[in-house]
Please model this.
Amino acid sequence: MNQVQKRGKFITIEGGEGVGKSSNIAFIQSWVKKNLSRELVLTREPGGTPLAEEIRELFIVPRDELVDENTELLLVFAARAQHIARVIKPNLEQGCWVLSDRFTDATFAYQGGGRGLDTKVILQLERIVQKDLQPDLTILLDLPVEEGLNRASERGDFDRIEREKISFFEDVRNAYLRRAQEDPDRFVIIDASQALDKVQLDISNALEVFCNESGEMQ
Ligand code: Z5A
Model:
């Protein structure tokens, strides 16, 4: 029988430095494996394809030359266009779930909030590059900036963005929280200052609600 494959769900995980995205992605992967009969594709931004990963390198490597805000903005959208065309859309169309470590909310937070670029310009690029594509669920891990920077500093080796001053990261955090307040149906805010097992309990509750509401639970 020729069954039409249901489109997969597009989930994004967001937050400032050191909030625990990497630590929780493996947890989400095992949750999906246990609870759903769907393949989950893990990916990240900037990056996710060989070309987009090259753009990521250009984007994050510390350099003496001052990087113009618009250069930064266009680099993330160039990587995103490739990522959407080669990874996100094809996998969603095949019925896979896609989990991306950051997506366009990061642009609104870092380039909009952090750099102070005009949100209208970001919206225009979003329309050109994404057309009607939006995440179905966004998990925002929220943590006081200093705590996140302390956690991240244990890794050493700061990239170009991580070298920004604390006020930059405060603006990023506020921009994320504003976006979550403006779109409560899509966002779930998780208190990332809790112990990891409590963070993961909150994430699994959010996934369960999302799956029940979207008819995905087995
Ligand atoms: N960027 C942008 O500017 N515009 C855009 O449009 C996009 C991105 C898409 C690369 O992103 C950079 O790109 C990023 C934004 C910019 N800025 N920087 N830098 P990235 O996602 O690759 O890099 P990141 O934000 O630096 O991620 P991260 O620092 O690796 O953070 P994380 O993955 O959220 O954290 P983690 O590695 O899971 O955890 C950090 C440490 O905390 C680690 O030792 C954990 O064991 C520990 N941890 C985690 N959870 C807990 C709890 N609950 N308690 C205690 N300790 C914990």
Observations:
- DSSP finds eight helices and five strands in the chain.
- The first helix runs from residue 21 to 35.
